[in-house]
Amino acid sequence: MNRIEQIDAQTELDKLIAGFFSVFDNRNGATPELDALLGYFAEKAVIARSSGLDIQLYTPMEFALPRIELLTGGSLVDFHEVETSSTTKTFGGIAVRTSRYRKEGLLNGRPYVGAGTKSFQLVALGSGWRIASLAWGDDQM
């Protein structure tokens, strides 16, 4: 991959990840959409969540449905999640990105805040860059 291709890939990856995080925002009447979230993933993507010693594995649909329901159901309001820093390594049509993020909102009327790390493996498909796998864990508060 030459320098221009690397810059183009980085730009596309930045847009993909910014779009992914933007789905998790229901401030100012925004309505997160299931199709938008699913569109960031490759068809056979795998999602893993670390919760203490427990690891849960999800398909994109298993990951997306409860999160969209939470964001649109009224119990989690004024919520948003944003990437605060990242590193990306690109190897041809494959990339690995580690992102720090923070999140905040009101859950059942009480402040809900947190931060953590997401690790993305991304692939360049004919339709553009997509998430092939995502692993994440929230910081222990």
Layout: helices, strands, pairs:
Elements: H1 3-22, H2 34-38, E1 41-51, E2 54-58, H3 60-72, E3 76-91, E4 94-107, E5 110-125, E6 128-138
Parallel strand pairs: 1-6
Antiparallel strand pairs: 1-2, 3-4, 4-5, 5-6
Description:
This protein has helices spanning 3-22, 34-38, 60-72; strands at 41-51, 54-58, 76-91, 94-107, 110-125, 128-138. The chain has 141 residues and is an alpha+beta fold. It has a six-stranded mixed sheet. The longest helix is centred in the N-terminal third of the chain and has 20 residues, at 3-22.
Summarize the structure.
This protein has 3 helices and 6 strands.
Q: What class would the helix/strand composition place it in?
A: alpha+beta
Shape: globular
Largest sheet: number of strands, sense, barrel closure: 6 strands, mixed
Q: Would you identify the regions where 5 or more consecutive residues have pLDDT less than 50?
A: none
The strand order across the widest sheet is: 2-1-6-5-4-3
Whole-Å distance between the termini? 41 Å
Q: What average pLDDT do the residues reach?
A: 93
What gyration radius follows from the Cα positions, in whole Å? 15 Å
Oligomer: single chain
Tally of DSSP β-strands: 6
Task: Provide the CATH top-level class.
Answer: Alpha Beta
Strand content: over 45%
CATH architecture: Roll
Count the helices. How many? 3
Sequence of secondary-structure elements: HHEEHEEEE
Helix content: 25-40%
Number of domains: 1
